[in-house]
Amino acid sequence: CNPLSLRYTDAMASLHLHGKEETHSSGVTAVGSTSSSPWGSVPWPFGGAAAHRSPNSFQHYSRSQVMVCKDERYEVSFLENEGPTPLARSKLLGALEICEAGSCFVEKGSIYGAAILMPQLARSMNWHRLLTIEAFRSFILIAVSIFLQVSLLVMLARKESVYDTFAGQMFLCDLGAGCIQGYSSRCTGPSGTEITPPRLYSFDIWTTRLFVRESLKAIFPDKQDDIDERIDPGEYGLESYYCRLLCCILFVMSMLKEGTNIIGMGKVLYYPPTRADSWLGEGSSGAEADTDRPDISITVQAEAESRDASLPEARERSSSSAKRTMKSAEDLASAANGWQDGFEEDWLDSIDLRIAGMPLMWKVINAVLILLPKILVWKLTVQTGITFLMETASISDLVVNSIALTFILSIDEMICETLTSQSTLSMLSRCKDYPLFDPEVAQLSEEDIAAKYGGEKLEEGLRFWDIIAIVFPTRLVCVVVITLYFVLSYYHQHCHLSDGGEFLPNALYAPKTSDFSFLQAIFPDSFPIETVTQPTWSMPT
Q: Which range among 167-181, 254-268, 309-323 shows the weakest confidence by mean pLDDT?
């Protein structure tokens, strides 16, 4: 093996070997032995190296690589071209605009996506019994998913709003915020004493120490002064205000993906036309699709024979390598046909599952039974999670709990993975997105692309709003706004602003009953809990 140098242009790659230049129509590189590629491993006829082909020349290779062939090191390097042409720049600009326009889609791994897709496929098949069964089953699983999610969230909200109140736990608000770090001017705890680092405890430890002191005072009433002097229960407060705020931001950030899925579902109901189009079409068959694949075995065999026609040993080695290559390519092709081994053609590859027009009745049904519950579950999850974090005083508990609640929103994915049929999962994975850009853009000629995206558009510079978008990314702004909304809602409902500018907990009123409904959990301001008239605790002055 001698050192190789690879030079690629826009159309082809040239391989220099033993001082001879050989031209190939697709990307070729040499490596140590054999390796995988989109079309399989191809033994290289010379010196045991391997040639790998890719549909797009060299798009997966770096500028330079060092390779070993028969214990010899040699280097592959790519020579830079003179720069992108105006047509290439125009195509890149058009591709970026298409990416920004995006597409609407059904969630591939969620039962919500199955509940949208399967009824439309059943409708397109005139409600055949197999697809009708899958459609009704998806709605049943949607109900199970929503029931589990809402039940868990309502139980958590009941614990914070009812059971903690019965236990005498006041809302944390900003109790002790900044007292440990020393930047707070007011460090009075719920017992009325000053909060200091050695006297700061969690609520469970603080109430236990307080219970012991009050029990001793009840047993020895004549020694109350000595007990107050010798036994210090400490105070209950927040260990780190900024850690709590940071964990709230991280929690909302983990919820943002589900929020984008909700927006995507809304796009599926809004952008496709309101008519009874078929979501099932006829695509290219497996045989037709296979003709587009480069025939590795034939190409490698022909190149090997043409290179070494004068070398008997090399011809024999090339022939055996080509035979191995043909078998490897055939094995990979048969494995790539689909999940049913032994079939000559994957039938699902020969049909076209895509998002298309939806009747108005189905848009209303999906909006009421799927989209609206998904929005309410997301809102209840974020609201309950923020309240749960705002009521957490320990730093370690804050870090753990900031991620713990995200599993509730993954229940629908778990149900889809474990309870749905294999046919539903397969059709979900094969459903094509609905493009939000003009499909005719993909059919433009090179002249039209240059006219549409070239010229002055290639010379556009940064504008004022571009700088704003750089400094304030849209998704980051959404995370901050959502966090501030739910944090301020917590302060508004459970706290009041003191003269020193700190949020302190409101007086604690015990509920009359332990009843707690879904409406009280998701709309606490509109459906307040009925409480007694006398407070069980109030902030000491």
A: 309-323
Q: Report the alpha-carbon angle 60-65-68, nearest 5.
A: 120
Residues 185 and 235: their CA atoms lie apart, in Å, by 16
* 8 A C-beta contact, residue 338 and residue 346: yes
Token reading at 177: 């915020």
- Least Cα distance to 203 among 184, 192, 189 occurs for 189
How far is residue 276 from each of residues 157, 345, 354, 359, measured CA to CA in Å? 43, 30, 14, 5
How many other β-carbons are positioned within 10 Å of the β-carbon of residue 367? 14
pLDDT digits (tens, 9 = 90+) for 97-134: 777 777 888 988 899 999 999 999 999 999 999 999 99
Cβ neighbours, 10 Å, residue 7:
15
CA 308 from centre of chain? 52
SS3 96: helix
Q: How many residues does the chain have?
A: 541
What does the alpha-carbon distance between residue 433 and residue 281 come to, in Å, rounded to a whole number? 14
Kind plus residue range of the DSSP H or E element containing 113: helix 111-124
Type and span of the H or E element at 104: strand 103-104
According to DSSP H, which parts of 159-271 are helical?
Answer: 164-166, 203-219, 224-230, 241-270
pLDDT digits (tens, 9 = 90+) for 229-272: 899 999 998 988 899 999 999 999 999 989 999 999 999 999 99
CA 74 to chain centre: 42
Q: How far is CA 525 from CA 282, 437, 490, 494, in A?
A: 53, 42, 11, 11
How far is 168 from 236, CA to CA, in rounded Å? 12
